[in-house]
Design goal:
Blueprint lengths: L1 E4 L14 H9 L3 E5 L10 H6 L3 E3 L2 H7 L2 E3 L6 H4 L7 E4 L7 H10 L2 E4 L14 H18 L21 E5 L3 H12 L3 E6 L3 H10 L3 E5 L2 H10 L2 E4 L14 H5 L6 E4 L20 E4 L2 E4 L9 H22 L1 H7 L1 H4 L2 E4 L2 E2 L2 H7 L6 H5 L1
Parallel strand pairs: 1-2, 1-4, 2-3, 4-5, 5-6, 7-8, 7-10, 8-9, 10-11, 11-13
Antiparallel strand pairs: 6-14, 12-13, 14-15
Helix pairs in contact: 6-7, 11-12
């Protein structure tokens, strides 16, 4: 199979769909790999490293899309990239279609098959291709929150860890999945007073075993959210509905009750965000102030640490890429229900139930579309 990876064009996105080590495994198996020149420069991997791994370097994204049967990316395709897709071609990347009807319609019109990293599952009910970037984003959330609490950044001037004789900052984390767990881990490491909320106690119990008395765990409901968010210096939104739009857990009125100079980090922004006041931002202009509260809503947070992120992502995605290359996409989807769960668009139809519901579009079940 001919596999291609273009240079990412989203603002300040430096990750790459295939690192040289992944290319080497694919070419060793007899596949042809096309890499856009400069695609790996953002992670310190120059074209020579790809050539050494067996890739062919092509001059632009158009050459990748024209030549590849399977396009492996990181972020959702931008409008110009969607225009280069064609029927019979497969796109393997993060899509986050629920809050993005224009992208969904573009992919449907292209006739291409689109498999979303974020809805591929595993035998334990997890999301193995979302997990590594969730871990990165969760750890970053505490870091950036601490940064924007500094007075010079517009924050309230609070040190999360406090000092002897002065109370630490208060952090509320909404959601106890991979993002929430890692956000709590980092915030605890900084010395903050950390509370994590989740619907259902199983994940909270697991976190209790790991962190003990250094982490407060609360069953999430409207009253608890209102109480803990209003009292927090930093609120990290870490909720997830796989494939679907994030629920709006924090109202505009509640944000307005937070202390001026407090910080919101909405990691759920890829799926529309869990604060009513959230809107997407970029690494070039990451924050805005709403009701006196600093909002950090960057849609590609792990892009800020692209070397770590790209290698972690490739570790997770490569087995699926190799399976599709070896068997063909249709056979790989038919053989693996977990990969099939990643199928979001095929032959002009939406094939993921959560995406279809969020966008108000008709659903063609993935198995039916494949059959």
């Amino acid at each position: 199979m001919r596999i291609g990876s273009p240079k990412e064009i989203k603002v300040h996105e430096y990750r790459v769909g295939l690192v040289p080590a992944s290319v080497a495994e694919l070419t060793a198996a007899g596949h042809e790999v096309l890499i856009e020149t400069g695609a790996g420069a953002g992670i310190g991997m120059e074209d020579a490293a790809y050539v050494a791994a067996g890739a062919a370097i092509v001059p632009d994204a158009a050459a990748v899309f024209a030549g590849a049967d399977l396009v492996v990316k990181v972020k959702e395709p931008q409008a110009g990239e969607i225009a280069m897709l064609r029927g019979g071609q497969t796109l393997f990347t993060y899509l986050h279609l629920a809050p993005d009807p224009d992208q969904a319609r573009g992919l449907m019109d292209s006739g291409a098959t689109a498999i979303a990293y974020e809805t591929v599952t595993d035998a334990h009910g997890g999301l193995p291709l979302l997990a590594p970037m969730s871990e990165v984003a969760g750890r970053m959330a505490a870091q950036v929150g601490a940064h924007f609490l500094e007075k010079a950044q517009g924050g309230a001037g609070i040190l999360l860890g406090g000092v002897p004789g002065v109370a630490p900052g208060r952090v509320t984390v909404l959601g106890a999945g991979a993002v929430g767990r890692e956000a709590a881990r980092m915030a605890i490491g900084l010395g903050a007073d950390v509370t994590i909320l989740n619907r259902g106690v199983d994940k909270l119990a697991a976190l209790n075993l790991v962190f003990g008395a250094s982490l407060k765990t609360l069953q999430s409901n409207a009253h608890v959210i209102e109480e803990t968010v209003a009292a927090a210096d930093l609120v990290i939104g870490a909720v997830l509905v796989p494939g679907g739009a994030a629920p709006k857990l924090v109202s505009r009125e509640l944000v307005a009750r937070m202390r001026p100079g407090s910080v919101v980090v909405d990691v759920a922004i890829d799926q529309g965000g869990c604060f009513e006041t959230s809107r997407p931002t970029t690494h070039a202009d990451p924050v805005y102030v709403e009701d006196g509260v600093i909002h950090y809503c960057v849609t590609n947070m792990p892009g800020a640490v692209p070397r770590t992120s790209a290698f972690a992502l490739n570790n997770a995605t490569l087995p699926f890429t190799k399976a599709m290359a070896a068997k063909g996409v249709a056979a790989a989807l038919a053989d693996d229900p977990h990969l099939l769960a990643g199928l979001n668009v095929m032959a002009g139809a939406i094939t993921n139930a959560a995406v279809a519901e969020s966008l108000g579009l008709d659903l063609t079940p993935a198995a039916a579309a494949l059959g």
